[in-house]
Amino acid sequence: RFFKLSLRAGAQGVPIAGVAAAGWSPAGGLILYWAESVLLLGATAILLALWARRGADPAEIARAGIRTRDVLLVHGGAFGIFGLFLAGILFILTDKGMVAPGTLVDALTGLPWVALFVGVELAVDLARLRAASAADLARRVDAGTNRFLLFWLVGFVGGLALVFSGKPLVLFSLFAAFKVMFEVGAVLRHLTAAKAPLPLVHPGSGV
Fold it and tell me: Residues 144-163: pLDDT tens digits?
């Protein structure tokens, strides 16, 4: 439990450390959070596809809402649209001189570290995939849904406010705080649900 939580927290800490200690631009940190979410979506798609290939019942997959194609279309579309929105905001801010031109370089500097954390977490999940249930994967998909809702609510409103306020560090700090709380909470909820005892079944009860 602690190892998986550490991996997710480590991925969240890369943009924070870069902005706070390495002099990255706050906009670069936001791009890195977006890239991390896209990587997590890719990891989820891999898990869903492999779980389905092990012979899972298609009806069960449909009931749980974990069809790989559907998840990629919905989540991928949402993050793609947000990526275009973020790019547009950054273009406006760079043109106004509010964001340094090296923003993308900052994000690319931190991307290998974020990818490392996501990759190790994926390896752990792959090792446990045989024991995973449809409900486990559905919780991961739900976390992805909540993740892009967080991006749209905080990022969209905050991005518009950033255009008028010109204070990217305030937006980054606000988003980073919400993102860390969300990711840590998502991992803890998943682990708690996975360890929850199954309801007792009484012989002859039909339940």
Answer: 999 988 888 876 676 666 66
The model's pTM is: 0.86
Token pair of 193, please? 């649900």
Nearest to 79 by CA among 11, 147, 142: 147
Task: Answer yes or no: is pLDDT of 185 > 90.
Answer: no
Cβ neighbours around 150 below 10 Å, total: 18
- Residue carrying structure tokens 């749980």: 64
How far is 173 from 179, CA to CA, in rounded Å? 10
Residue of 158, 151, 159, 157 lying closest to 183 (CA atoms): 151
Query: Which two three-digit tokens encode residue 62?
Result: 């449909």
Closest CA to 99 of 41, 30, 5: 30
Give the residue among 119, 87, 86 at the shortest CA–CA distance from 11: 119
Report in angstroms the alpha-carbon separations of 138 from 21, 55, 65, 113, 184: 37, 17, 7, 27, 18
Percent of the chain residues topping a pLDDT of 70: 86
pLDDT at 56: 82
Q: Under a CB-based contact definition with an 8 Å cutoff, are residues 192 and 135 in contact?
A: no
Phi, psi (deg, nearest 5) at residue 192: -65, -45
Cα dihedral angle (96, 98, 99, 100), rounded to 10 degrees?
Answer: 90
How far apart are alpha carbons 95 and 12 in whole angstroms? 28
Residue 99 Cα to chain centre, angstroms = 25
